[in-house]
Amino acid sequence: MKSSIKGLGVLNRVMLLAFVGFCISCQFFQKDLKDHEYTTNWSEMALFITKNTPGNSPTYASRSLGYIGLTMYESVVHSDSTYASMAGQLDSLSSLPLPEPNQKYDWILSMNAAQAAIIKDMYQHTSDLNKAKIDSLEKALLEARSVNIQDPEITKRSVAYGRAVAHKIFEWSKTDGGHEGYLRNFDKKRVYPQKLGGWQPPLYSQSFSRSPLHPDWGKNRTFLIADHKIVAPKPIPFDSVPQSEYYQQFLAVYRQRNALTQQQKEAAVWWGDDPDETFTPPGHSYYIATLVVKKIKPSLIKSAETYARVGMGVADAFIDCWKWKYQFFTERPNTFIPKYIDKFWESFWPDPPFPAFPSGHAIQAAATATVLGNLYGNTITIVDDAHVGRKPDGLRNTEFKARTFNSLWEIADETARSRFYGGIHTPMDNDAGLQKGKEIGENINKLIWQKSLFHKGK
Predict the structure, then answer these.
(1) For residue 399, how many other CB atoms are within 10 A of its CB?
(2) Angle 199-285-260 from CA coordinates, rounded to 5°
């Protein structure tokens, strides 16, 4: 069965794996799964739920993946005495449940129970069918793992511990400002100041709403205090004079739109990650992490650390990015170019419903590349097949073909450039996003993940 699903797109694969959860006697779960395979099953389930839950947005998805990834790590961190909990290192997270001393735990079962609990907590508004899929996957993996556990008390204790960790993290999440953010995606009553170079609701939009998405998201608590204190980037001041630096930013977008190659069009569509159709840009980063885990096949604790770093990275990236978007409230090319360069111009990709500077795609992709590079080295070949199997984009005459990258930073760079190809971001938007995303990733890398490395002064 494993070989038969290899060629499917990620969403189809996840749907199939979720279905297998109902068929716990299937051969797929009878084999001895590797430790990292338990984590990737849950990452794929998290992405399936992210994509198939109402109120989907990149902001809320990033937050959810932050807590889901952290929960995975904390549910297994005590399996290795050299690793350190994030309790006491993250903003306002003073403590987490501890395992009972001198008692045996099966840490995969702890992780399994914790993931089921936190995904249902973060997506309480998902359908009953989706919740049943989460439950069935938990049960299938529980039974596959429990075959070789002789003492039922170990199973019971491990499951209870995982659920306790998930509960504590979820309760902490309620205080960050983003709880149930899907209920308030757009603020229709807010009045914004009019200014030269200010953002305007787009006519050519990928959203039904003409109100901006989550204008207060930047006020949310970041996972890291250091990420809250990052100095804001500085956009180029508005200037409509053709020789000005500001004008040249938009002229570059205009010229690129008129010279798009087929490969650039494919990149623009591939990285679009429209929340109405996909698991969103932060979900794509979580998927890249899954590809890395499948390729490297790390230990259970390092697999969980991977998802914690990436999850918190994209979560903090979106909080900081949204803080700066609404601080500067800058326009997109679809506003400037028709007014000052070509009144008939239209971008290749439709505008998202929020201000431009800095680029959200760029900042979260850079954070992801920075943390994954720290864990596994930047030079790694990845074949991104996230959208393989989707119908071709007939409007833009592009197909969804798997994309091959030879380094993690190459992925971040193309993610950023894809928005330039799409005509919805200027170079300054992308440059600032990549720079600040790298800072966020470096802050996460500086956390004490392994005590032994910390004591050695690394």
Answers:
(1) 15
(2) 60
Rounded Cα gap, residues 58 and 67, in angstroms: 15
Q: Tokens representing 130?
A: 């989706």
Q: What is the pLDDT of residues 10-22, one digit of tens each?
A: 444 444 444 444 4
> Residue 297 has what DSSP assignment?
-
E strand or H helix that includes residue 56: none
Distance CA 114, CA 402 (A): 32
CATH class (in words) of the domain with range 3-173: mainly alpha
The two domains 3-173 and 198-455 share their CATH topology (first three levels equal): yes
Is residue 350 a contact partner of residue 202, using CB atoms and an 8 Å limit? yes
- For the residues 257-282, what does the mean pLDDT come to? 96
C-alpha span between 388 and 313 (Å, rounded): 26
Using the Cα atoms of residue 25, residue 26, residue 28 and residue 31 in order, give the sign of their dihedral.
Answer: positive
How far apart are alpha carbons 371 and 18 in whole angstroms?
29
Q: Is the confidence at residue 106, as pLDDT, over 60?
A: yes
Measured between alpha carbons, how far is 332 from 1 in angstroms, rounded to an integer?
Answer: 47
pLDDT tens-place string over residues 349-358? 999 999 999 9
What is the CATH architecture assignment of 198-455?
Orthogonal Bundle (1.10)
In the chain, where are the structural domains located?
3-173, 198-455
Residue 202 pLDDT level (bands cut at 50, 70, 90): confident
Distance separating alpha carbons of residues 455 and 450, to the nearest angstrom: 9
Q: Which residue has the higher pLDDT, 15 or 152?
A: 152
Work out the percent of the chain whose per-residue pLDDT is above 90: 86
What's this model's pTM, rounded to 2 decimal places? Answer: 0.93
Structure confidence at residue 188 (pLDDT):
85
**Do residues 330 and 356 make contact, with C-beta atoms less than 8 angstroms apart?**
yes
The 3-state secondary structure of 166-211 reads HHHHHHHHCCCCCCCHHHHCECCCCCCCCCCCECCCCCCECCCCCC
Q: Within its chain, how far is the Cα of 273 from the centroid?
A: 11
3-state helix, strand, coil in the chain (%, to 5): 55, 5, 40
- Say which amino acid occupies 139: K
pLDDT tens digits for 372-416?
999 999 999 999 999 999 999 999 999 999 999 999 999 999 999
Instruction: Tell me the residue type at 25.
Output: S
